[in-house]
Amino acid sequence: TREGVPVRNVTARVAPLGSRLVLALVEDRTRERRVEAVRRDFVANVSHELKTPVGALRLLAEAVHEASDDPEAVERFADRMLTESDRLSKLVQQIIELSRLQADAPLDAPVAVDLDEVVQVAVDTSKIDAEDKRISVIVHGTEGLEVFGNEGQVMAAVSNLVANAVSYSEPDSTVLVTTKADDGTVEISVVDQGIGIPAGELDRIFERFYRVDPARHRSTGGTGLGLSIVKHVAATHGGEVRVWSAEGQGSTFTLTLPQHHAHERQMQEESP
Ligand code: ADP
Hints:
Its main location: membrane. This protein is α+β, with helices and mostly antiparallel strands. It has helices at residues 7-12, 16-66, 71-100, 115-125, 127-132, 151-167, 226-236, 262-270, and strands spanning 111-114, 136-141, 146-149, 174-182, 185-192, 240-246, 250-258.
């Protein structure tokens, strides 16, 4: 069959004029197969990740039944059911978000996105968790910047970075969010003084469902999807995300996205 034939042989056997076409077809099929493998992997991971909280909820519900004459135990189990169901709904929401973001797909009708508003929403979303740990979240930098992109996606990316910074920080510390423009791009940096990431894990943290030692921070209820959402948002915008981190010292995530310029706004308004 053709299945096992290396690309090299396939192209060598065709006439020179057609070789580029055949090579393109072979590359296309290889890409298709890779996409299919990633999709299958994703479905398998999703099923596995969903089974855990669903199973825990079932066990807890059974425990509530059995402990019906012990109000304290019932309350304890009910609290854990709340935690598990919050985790489950976050997981489902992120899975939906991630499957909407097709890697490398070009953006549909990008618009001017108000970065100040995005940062404000991201900070507000993490407010309760930050207050619980007495973490101050400080916003600093250039105001009035606009990203050229998709508002929902940019919002999801920045919110995930701020939420992580708060989750992986020690109590009474500071998280700094800075914004600046640089040569046609805007840079959003989120700096924390948290637990940091071991050097050997840095290139894996953007993978779907990857968590650095889940036992280390089980209480944060992470899904392992946040950073892969950030990575996909960067890719669909033609931007990038970089990380600097040192264990025990903190982390800095920098997201670079295309800047929207005032003259582009004028052109958008003028076009029908
Ligand atoms: P999660 O939902 O687990 O936070 P992410 O994809 O957002 O998933 O992050 C993947 C892993 O990277 C996390 O589990 C955590 O171990 C690590 N990580 C992400 N952000 C930070 C940070 N600001 N400080 C320390 N570790 C982080």
